[in-house]
Design goal:
- The structure holds 2 protein chains of 2 kinds.
- By secondary structure, chain A is mainly α.
- Among the domains of chain A are: about 100 residues, Cytochrome Bc1 Complex, Chain D, domain 2 (Orthogonal Bundle), CATH 1.10.760.10; about 100 residues, Cytochrome c-like domain (Cytochrome Bc1 Complex, Chain D, domain 2, Orthogonal Bundle), CATH 1.10.760.
- Helices cover about 55% and strands about 0% of the residues of chain A.
- By secondary structure, chain B is an alpha+beta fold.
- The longest helix of chain B is centred in the last third of the chain and has 22 residues.
- The radius of gyration of chain B is 24 Å and the shape is globular.
- The chains are: A mainly alpha, B alpha+beta.
- At the A-B interface, helix 14 of A face loops of B.
Chain lengths: ~290, ~500
């Protein structure tokens, strides 16, 4: 067949359009579930109890559908407008304002609400939240957690070690990275084992999500890390400025050593010729005027 | 034997008057562009003096040229394969602007715009780099005619090995002496700039041995600048590429002498073809220090030898080039008369520009005052050449310049010059008797016929005697490289490299 290029193009675009139209409606439900897992599950469960945010089981019965649609895209606006329900939620969450869900289209908001409604009717929703064991942490848990945080043990999902971006008391002589917040007291900040574990299973911040979105932590890794973070919170000792000063001094010292090494390696390099000749002959700066040298 | 042809040069220092006409001719043709202000493809230095850039002959500092290892191999002083990597962001042997000079012009507007004051307004020097007013600290020929002797002349690297007394006499009142040393690219047989270039931008042209720098392949590494011991490759700060003397090849290809040769007032310059044995370059360049001058001379082949002619034809040297080599004045000076010597052969680049060492002033230390006969022809002693040994320019100084520290070749060249002078003096003035003149010729390894030939080529040389330029045969050179039919029916001007428009 020797059709002109234009015909091929037309056929291709027609095929794409047809596929888009025929896409099954169930795809929306799947999208909504994936969206929930990515953006909501770190603060909300469906039937798993309260985390940072309330348990969403039966929320469609508690709240009006229209209100949910108004609240979802921009919770802060609704709180600011003095909406009584929103204000109450705000107080219950002890001042944590729900961040606006990213890239939320009206269609997605609708799909989300339908999905939550459907999940609420199930006996055990898949969004019940990570079920972390209540057993007391052992010394092995803490040791393994420390090893994971420091990156000595690789994560199953091959994500980066916590220490590369975060520091916390006792993690090492030079502390950890400074990109993320100090994690010494994170156990207290997130109010305990369950919330911290859920956060780790589906981190909600854009930075953490982009790093761990494709390489999530596994449940058997989360437990030791939480154990280690709990121990760290108990022992306290947030990274004071001392680590920073050591780091700075080490940097300066390293630079000086490096420069000295370069100076040694290139000791035969070309240095000025004419300038020193003039200086040597006594026609230096002091006598520059008057002579033609 | 692998015969190749090279356009080689001789500068007769005894005739150079240091007028810098050559430098100006070159400057006006080639280096009056932006970024080339400080370049002097041709410059004339005063010796003793530190030259341009300052003390370029001091390879302990500049690290140019080749060095022979313990094992007898040649190594570049400035770089090697490993150091290309370690020095990739900064070459540690680059001369700085201060060792050349900061180019400047004058604020001529100030002559017209200056506010009224007590003094005549002057044109204030202004830097061509920064555009700000400049306190001039150095310039081209800053040490011209012994300018700043205590700084520059006294630090000439060629003074090494001289006694303090000899050094003192060089600048003593009424005995002070200097001569001129014009320099262009030597178009060496074993060029270190070519060897050092990481981009392969430098090459020695096959048909005439001119060393050229391909502006499209140059990546501005500047390895050539460090590697050239004569500091005759320059970096253009505007284009980011290096440039060097091209021996005016566009002029040569049209049968004209290079601009500096053409304009030479003292007629000191000679140009002609040498046939040489390319297969023995490496062996010659690895010779012992004391053998280097002779080793290089041995590379040059007799263009009248039938075996050489046959080998030259076999390796594709054109018949007209062989004929040109037979008439070459350079061949006479370098190979037959052995009067012209390579500059600083100890750098082992095998330079193909040769210098006839200067006799003037012939006045010896002893007779060099103003009172006596001026030493032109001083008394005849048993040793007729004693004044060469006692010349005011010490033999050791010339040997450092032209003999890799060995006085032998320099002494030979000067004795022959002096013998020819006395021979001519016998013929024209008559105050030298024939027996003395003939004895001098004999002792200087010269015959009356040779003395006549030297005299003619030194003093009576016409334009065509000095410049024997072979036909370029560009058509053959091009065919070696590319198919001339490749661009047939092309679009005309700019079809190979599109012209830059709008500037």
């Amino acid at each position: 067949m020797n059709w002109p290029l234009g015909v091929w193009r037309w056929c291709a675009s027609a095929a794409v359009a047809a596929l888009a139209v025929c896409a099954p409606a169930t795809a929306h439900a799947q999208d909504a579930a994936a969206y929930f897992q990515q953006n909501c599950a770190s603060c909300h469960t469906i039937g798993g109890g309260r985390l940072t945010g309330p348990d969403l089981k039966g929320v469609t019965e508690r709240r009006d559908h229209a209100w949910l649609l108004r609240y979802l895209p921009d919770p802060k606006a609704l709180i600011d407008s003095g909406d009584p329900i929103a204000t109450q939620l705000f107080q219950e969450a002890r001042g944590v304002i729900m961040p606006p869900p990213p890239l939320l289209t009206p269609a997605m908001a609708d799909a989300l609400i339908s999905m939550i409604e459907a999940e609420s009717k199930l006996e055990k929703s898949r969004f019940v939240g990570i079920q972390i064991s209540d057993r007391p942490f052992t010394a092995q848990d803490v040791a393994r957690g420390r090893s994971l945080v420091r990156g000595e043990t690789a994560q199953t999902g091959s994500g980066p070690a916590c220490m590369s971006c975060h520091t916390l008391g006792g993690v090492g002589a030079l502390g950890g990275g400074r990109i993320g917040p100090d994690l010494t007291k994170v156990y207290e900040r997130l109010q305990g084992r369950k919330a911290l574990a859920v956060w780790l299973s589906a981190p909600a911040t854009p930075m953490m999500r982009s790093v761990f979105g494709r390489t999530p932590l596994q449940a058997e890794e989360i437990l030791p890390i939480v154990a280690y973070l709990e121990r760290s919170a108990q022992q306290g000792g947030e990274d004071t400025g001392v680590g920073m000063v050591t780091f700075l001094l080490l940097g300066l010292g390293g630079t000086a050593v490096g420069l000295l090494a370069f100076d040694g390696a290139w000791r035969n390099r070309f240095r000025a010729v004419r300038g020193p000749l003039v200086e040597e002959a006594g026609f230096g700066r002091g006598r520059a005027r008057g002579g033609n040298q | 034997m692998e015969v190749r042809s090279q356009i080689a040069m001789v500068f007769h220092l005894d005739k150079c008057i240091g007028c810098h006409t050559c430098s100006i001719a070159c400057k006006n043709i080639w280096t009056d562009r932006k970024g080339t202000e400080y370049m002097w493809w041709n410059n004339v230095e005063t010796k003793p003096g530190t030259g341009f850039p300052t003390q370029w002959e001091n390879q302990d500092k500049y690290s140019g040229g080749w060095t022979r290892t313990e094992g007898g191999d040649l190594r570049l002083k400035s770089t090697d394969k490993a150091r290309v990597v370690t020095n990739i962001f900064h070459h540690p042997h680059q001369p700085s602007m201060d060792d050349y000079y900061e180019p400047w012009t004058y604020d001529y507007q100030h002559l017209f715009n200056a506010p009224e004051g007590q003094d005549q307004p002057t044109a204030i020097p202004i830097s061509m780099v920064t555009g700000k007013y400049l306190d001039i600290k150095a310039g081209p020929n800053w040490d011209d005619d012994l300018g700043g002797s205590t700084v520059y002349a006294e630090n000439d690297p060629n003074l090494e090995g001289l006694t303090d007394e000899q050094k003192g006499q060089l600048s003593a009142i009424e005995r002070l002496v200097f001569f001129y040393f014009p320099r262009i690219c030597n178009h060496c047989l074993n060029p270190s700039c070519v060897a050092a270039c990481p981009s392969g931008a430098l090459y020695k042209r096959g048909e005439d041995g001119i060393v050229l720098l391909d502006q499209t392949r140059c990546r501005g590494w500047r390895s050539c600048i460090a590697a050239c011991p004569y500091k005759k490759v320059y970096y253009n700060w505007s284009t980011g590429k290096s440039e060097k003397c091209i021996l005016c090849f566009p002029r040569l290809e049209t049968g004209q002498a290079p601009a500096c040769f053409h304009s030479c007032v003292g007629r000191i310059r000679y140009l002609g073809v040498l046939l040489y044995d390319a297969s023995r370059i490496e062996e010659a360049a690895k010779s012992n220090l004391e053998d280097l001058v002779e080793a290089q001379r041995s590379l040059i082949l007799d263009p009248n030898d039938p075996a050489v002619i046959a080998a030259a034809r076999e390796s594709g040297v054109h018949e007209s080039v062989i004929e040109s080599a037979q008439k070459s004045p350079v061949y006479q000076f370098v190979k037959v008369w052995k009067m012209a010597l390579p500059p600083h052969i100890e750098y082992r680049t095998m330079p193909m520009l040769f210098y006839v060492p200067p006799m003037a002033p012939v006045m010896a230390q002893r007779t060099g005052g103003t009172g006596d006969r001026g030493g032109t022809v001083d008394g005849v002693s048993d040793d007729l050449f004693h004044d060469i040994e006692q010349a005011r320019v010490p033999m050791k100084f010339l040997a450092n310049l032209f003999g890799a520290g060995n006085e032998g070749p320099v002494r030979y060249a000067l004795r022959k010059q002096k013998a020819v002078r006395w021979y001519r003096r016998m013929l024209t003035v008559g105050d030298v008797d024939a027996a003395t003149a003939e004895r001098m010729l004999r002792e200087a390894d010269c015959t009356p016929e040779e003395a006549d030939a030297i005299y003619r080529l030194t003093s009576l040389c016409t334009f065509d005697d000095r410049f024997v330029i072979p036909p370029a045969h560009r058509e053959e050179a091009i065919e070696m490289l590319e198919d001339p039919m490749e661009h047939k029916q092309g679009a005309g001007f700019g079809f190979i490299a599109r012209p830059k428009r709008g500037e």
